[in-house]
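Subject: Interface between my chains keeps coming out wrong

I've been trying for a while to get a sensible model of this assembly. When I model each chain on its own everything looks fine, but I need the whole thing in one frame so I can look at the contacts. Pasting all components below, labels as-is. Any help appreciated, I'm running out of ideas.
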Amino acid sequence: MAHGSGGRLSHELVDKCFLRFFRNPILDKLGDSATFELGRRLAFTTDSYVVTPLFFPGGDIGKLAVCGTVNDLAMSGAVPLYLSASFIIEEGLAISELQRIAASMKAAADEAGMTVVAGDTKVVNRGSADKLFITTTGVGVIASGVDISPDNAGPGDTVILSGTIGDHGITILSQREGLSFSTDLRSDCAPLHQLVAEMLQESHRINCLRDPTRGGLATSLNEIAEQSGVSIEIEEELIPVRDEVRGACELLGLDPLHVANEGKLIAIVEEDVAEKILERMKKHRYGERAAIIGRVGTGPRGRVVMKTPFGSRRILDMPSGELLPRIC
Amino acid sequence: MAHGSGGRLSHELVDKCFLRFFRNPILDKLGDSATFELGRRLAFTTDSYVVTPLFFPGGDIGKLAVCGTVNDLAMSGAVPLYLSASFIIEEGLAISELQRIAASMKAAADEAGMTVVAGDTKVVNRGSADKLFITTTGVGVIASGVDISPDNAGPGDTVILSGTIGDHGITILSQREGLSFSTDLRSDCAPLHQLVAEMLQESHRINCLRDPTRGGLATSLNEIAEQSGVSIEIEEELIPVRDEVRGACELLGLDPLHVANEGKLIAIVEEDVAEKILERMKKHRYGERAAIIGRVGTGPRGRVVMKTPFGSRRILDMPSGELLPRIC
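Reply #2:
Try treating it as a single job with all components included. I did that and got this:
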């Protein structure tokens, strides 16, 4: 199970089972989307969704699948255009639930300006899957002058986080295991393409974008630091966390920095445009609580350090075990 | 389960759960790939693979997933280029099996000239999936002058089938349920892009291409007849079927025309280029047993009729129940 956590073991699995065989310059970038030139500069991304329960406060598996793909395209600075959706359905799933999920996907695709152009449906025997899995794949177009990639962070760059962390993961967790600690909490599941478009209107000097989903903020920062060959230093006090999320994490022994988000982004931008971009983000509904949380440094490659409110520093690693299975 | 058969009920499911919500001119064509203009004319297709067992004579789930996507692109006349692969893994699947499958995918992608540029991995608890499901999505480029679409068949066109039918479905079936009637039979799983490229070198007057996978030859012919608004008449005697497949089908009460193929295509071509295209196909390793099996007529829209060896005619419908679950 820990191989699916998004953390250290997931990276190992991908290395030894997939990258080892498929290695090529496009894949090796390990961006949220692959990007390549084909008449125009395109972004291409795929993800499977296995979240349980299928419906949760703030969304459902369908909205999650569409927003996840929209966001992976947006993290390359691409305008989302075309979407495919493939459904693996367990025998016995109610048609009405499938319709409700499809309607939700349509609404999310409309909000993102995406057209669903291809799909597939497989039905497996009862017990061979758990209700429904959805795989979405998206194609988008990257405007000229945009150069956003996880290996583009440079020393001195500013790290911006678009809002509170942990909302999605804790919402899903609260729906399972009979927990009821977070009555008002909702998943932050949302399409971020418009927020990114506005940030790019402000400045093209955005070097990396990443949505901290499975594995949380800590994992995404580690990935950027590793791929860009830099260190990153953040300050714990500057990271927005809702009280309900903080409380639930304390209760359960989780670190909010390891918990999944589905409507947040990390932006690594050049220092002198950071304030301007931050102000623009705060005006957007999905960036109201955006904050500068740290900066890129020249320390050892891949090292992410967090300064605590007490002034001490600790290394912020990826989670190494399984925290919350099937949160996305 | 019958909703996953590829036949009548699958079409109903797609209509009432998906098309109803997602309807748009690109999706409505219901081709093996979606096609759209984005700098160049692109083809885009996705499929999930849930075949069991994971390994079978002639292939495995990985080869099947890559060839399936290659073939869907090829059925739009596209040159396959970029591939994504998303894995849903059941806790406990051996790493060695996953590596064997990834190696097989790499070999199949290489044969097709495709680069794997994006992927995802999810792990679910034991019992929440059955070993491994793979979803592949492909992007290809369509050359100018190529206009292949399931709604392009016209009266008088010739129907060509690229080889024997039922090999894949019967091979998978023989691996399950303790059946052992078909010792030498192998899945026909193969990438057809090169065969299509050679056919297009011979002539661009190829109107439709379709690979008769789930639901078999009968389903694909019905889909073409429906979407092109034509009737199709085929002759049973002209359809190549291996003796082992025929025998197994008789034993099990199956119709070979309903059984899945993974390395065959149906081509609807203009009458005066049919012989020339057929000769070219026969020279290709994946088209050696190609044959003209019928023609497009002006009968009622969507009607497929088969002339039996005894001279009688019967309407060839899609299968309406579930024949063979999880054959692809």
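Reply #3:
Confirming on my end. The radius of gyration of chain B is 19 Å.
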